């Protein structure tokens, strides 16, 4: 399959998947799962009806009164699970309704995603405009939903596992976000192939760590109960290994890492030190530090991995994927640091003789897998670079074969005929400068050339007008209005040669430039040194006299279509022959 066909197929797939994602975002406002089992009426379980109440709650701190009023808003007030607020600063009494604001942002993102269908469908495939616009629309929606879930859990977490209604009151957003995330995975794998697959798994591992820091045990219990699965055997197994639910078990109560994280952050906001406590053991205080660090690192990791899914591959100018070892090493380091922090927390729990929750074991498992994958990626960087160089050389070889097997019209001199303008009739002599000549101009004058010159001269005198006439000749001849038409052709030719100024190239030279004729040297200088014959392609390297200019010559053949109209066929052929023999 050719590159153009592949790009066209990818763009079609991007458009289809993006349209599906947008339809899911819109459907999320009408899926009757919002506040499932919180509202008795099915119609009331749609987020769409609560947009006015959300708008009022989000803007109330700034407007001081409801923006929208009426019976409809009274019938669909803000649900209880969305009525959580927070102060911007401890001294500030302004209550910011974070969940309402995020719901409003989610509505705006949905509208923008609808608008983004236009650039996704009309974007140029060679510029990846479609996939970039799709990533922006889907990424903004998922990022907003992620913040919503984070603050939702932040405001609802207590020191015991949350009740199940906190899980399913937003099942519509969970369902829509999961479906859009799957579509984002498909687009990433489709565009980045194996690299997209690896980034998808790394993101999932970071997501699993976040879930384990939150309420993985409550989520697992809820799903098992919905499917009628008994977890009695699972909890008996945990008791046998002196483990339990949550991050650890204190006084027979499972405690989650996110609860500890929330308590310590709230203490810092209020100016209280709830991290390093007086009277507590060193291991207990180190455990607090480890939990806080683990939460921060987990948030950083999932944001970086999410951006990694949306970022595209970087290619060189020949289309080969660039191998970035630095990013792989950075991923390995951040996963190792997070794993070390989790192990430190585990050791502190052993020292404190506290039952370790299976959430911590799962965290260590996911991080260990992420470290192994990252280590393998770093270890294979050298082989990937070798493969990239081989692909680069193979593409150059294919271009060489294409050039050598192309028609003479593409690789050899198409014609050596030069167009000149005959001077207008005037009293003062016209001074002509011949800028380009061909190799045949240096050959001896034959009788046929002389006769042809006389005929052209006679035609010129018969058709003299105020405007210069274009004459096409096999030999570059400049005519004068003082030359008699009946003068012998050889004398006309020699007169022209004597009057034409000699071409001299006084620019820089090296092994390649010495292979060119004087005319080709001047042409090469104007195009690549003076750059007065048109704009060069973006990223075109400079020609360095006397140096290895392999990349420079490669760029000429990469942009062969442009240079075929800029360079003469003779100069292009000499460039090709030199590059083929010296690369």
Question: Topology, please?
Answer:
Layout: H1 3-27, H2 51-63, H3 71-75, E1 86-87, E2 95-96, H4 98-115, H5 117-122, H6 129-156, H7 165-168, H8 171-192, H9 194-213, H10 216-226, H11 232-240, E3 243-244, E4 248-250, E5 253-255, H12 257-269, H13 282-310, H14 325-351, E6 355-357, H15 358-379, H16 381-405, H17 408-411, E7 418-421, H18 447-462, E8 470-473, H19 489-499, H20 518-529, H21 550-558, H22 560-566, H23 569-582
Parallel strand pairs: 3-6
Antiparallel strand pairs: 1-2, 4-5, 4-6, 7-8
Description of the structure:
By secondary structure, this protein is mainly alpha-helical. The chain is 60% helix and 4% strand. The protein is built from 23 helices and 8 strands. It has helices spanning 3-27, 51-63, 71-75, 98-115, 117-122, 129-156, 165-168, 171-192, 194-213, 216-226, 232-240, 257-269, 282-310, 325-351, 358-379, 381-405, 408-411, 447-462, 489-499, 518-529, 550-558, 560-566, 569-582; strands spanning 86-87, 95-96, 243-244, 248-250, 253-255, 355-357, 418-421, 470-473. The protein has a 4-stranded mixed sheet. Helix 4 packs antiparallel against helix 6, helix 9 (194-213) packs antiparallel against helix 15 (358-379) and helix 18 crosses helix 19. The chain is extended and about 100 Å long. The protein starts with a helix and ends with a helix. 26% of the residues are buried.
Which key phrases capture this entry?
583 residues, mainly alpha, 60% helix
How much of the residues is beta strand, in percent? under 5%
Q: Could you give a short account of the major beta sheet?
A: 4 strands, mixed
Radius of gyration: 38 Å
Bin the helical content.
Answer: 55-70%
Name the structural class. Answer: mainly alpha
The strand order across the widest sheet is: 3-6-4-5
End-to-end C-alpha gap = 29 Å
- The coarse silhouette is extended
Calculate the mean pLDDT score and round it: 75
Low-confidence stretches: 1-6, 158-164, 406-455, 457-490, 492-498
Tell me how many strands there are: 8
Number of helices: 23
